[in-house]
Amino acid sequence: MKSPVVKRSIVIAGHKTSVSLEDAFWEALKEIASGRRLTLSDLVATIDSARTQGNLSSAIRLFVLDYYRGVATAARTQAVGERIPAASPPVA
């Protein structure tokens, strides 16, 4: 059985490193980088510089999770906001 984890080499700040992630995380990371008009290497470098502990693969997974949680929260907030009618002025 083939492992769902894919190891890829990436250059971060001029240094080549390998990162092991599931395909779903690689695809999500590419989508986020594209949406921010960054290269995959630049986005991973940003994630790497912001992490305080753990390995890079874990930091990337947590970054992707946090990103999509934010997207889901924004979508829920917008949906709720659209359902709330505008306040009527008080009747004198």
From TrEMBL:
A Pfam match: RHH_4
Residue intervals of the Ribbon-helix-helix domain: 6-68
Lineage: Bacteria, Pseudomonadati, Pseudomonadota, Alphaproteobacteria, Hyphomicrobiales
Protein name: Ribbon-helix-helix domain-containing protein
Domain of life: Bacteria
Gene3D superfamilies listed in its UniProt record: protein bp1543
Source organism of this protein record: Xanthobacter oligotrophicus
